[in-house]
Design a protein that fits this description.
Elements: H1 2-15, H2 20-38, H3 42-62, H4 64-83, H5 86-116
Length: 147
């Protein structure tokens, strides 16, 4: 029923394009929702997509009971989620995951270096005997005598 009504409104928009009713329908059905959607932030879109993904997951896992669950609990979930700024929380969660992943990679590198350092051969450092300075003519320490 709703789809048929929307198709009729769309048809009326196409047919009555230049008339006063067509302009009123355009303001009501096109410009007002476009203006409302223009105010959405990235966090709002993330919230909507997260809620839709959660609802799809519930419907897929629970089938018939999922419909009942979403029918009874859906409005409460949306109201509770809209009280919080979930876009910011999602940004914080992604940042935290990135930091922890970076730290784990560094920790893994340190662990691998410590674990496999014993197995890998190192180039041995050869100590060369200390040379005498080239300008030393004496056999031992000599004292300079002033004249």
């Amino acid at each position: 029923m709703i789809q048929a009504t929307l198709l009729l409104f769309w048809f009326a928009l196409l047919v009555a394009e230049g008339t006063p009713i067509g302009r009123a329908l355009r303001r009501l059905l096109v410009e007002a929702p476009a203006h409302w959607c223009n105010r959405w932030s990235r966090g709002d879109v993330l919230l909507i997509l997260t809620l839709l993904a959660g609802a799809a997951l519930i419907l897929w896992l629970m089938e018939a009971e999922g419909r009942l669950f979403l029918g009874m609990l859906g409005p409460d979930i949306v109201a509770g989620a809209s009280m919080l700024e979930l876009g910011t929380l999602l940004d914080v969660a992604v940042t935290a995951l990135t930091v922890f992943a970076t730290l784990r990679v560094k920790g893994l590198q340190q662990w691998a270096t410590a674990r496999f350092a014993r197995c890998m051969r190192r180039a041995r450092r050869i100590r060369r005997p200390a040379r005498k300075p080239t300008n030393d003519d004496g056999d031992g320490p000599a004292f300079a005598l002033a004249a």
